[in-house]
Amino acid sequence: MNLLSSNEKVTLLTVARQALESAVRGEKLQPIDLSDLSTTLKEPGSSFVTLTMKGELRGCIGSLEPSMPLAEDVREHAKAAALDDYRFPPVQPTELPDIQIEISYLTAPKPLVYENPGQLSETLRPGIDGVVLMDGFHRATFLPQVWEKLPDPEVFLSHLCLKMGAPPNSWRQKKMLVQTYQVEEFHE
Question: 6-106: which CATH topology?
Answer without folding.
Answer: Glycoprotein, Type 4 Pilin (3.30.700)
